[in-house]
Specification:
The chain contains two helices and four strands, in the order βαββαβ. It is an alpha+beta fold.
């Protein structure tokens, strides 16, 4: 399953965007992850300073 970003926690800092090796993260007021592009590597979750990213279900 693809990782997901909790919209209530995300601060749109950009750390995850810069870290994603497959460009699955979309910028915005709250960032989002394209589940079809995400490879479940977890790099985004590792760098999120507010722990807003978790494995999807």
């Amino acid at each position: 399953m693809a990782y997901k970003i909790d919209a209530d926690t995300c601060t749109a800092c950009g750390a995850c965007y810069d870290e994603c090796p497959v460009e699955a993260i979309k910028e915005g007021d709250v960032y989002s992850i394209d589940p079809d592009t995400c490879t479940d590597c977890g790099a985004c979750a590792d760098v999120c300073p507010v722990e807003a990213i978790s494995p999807g279900e």
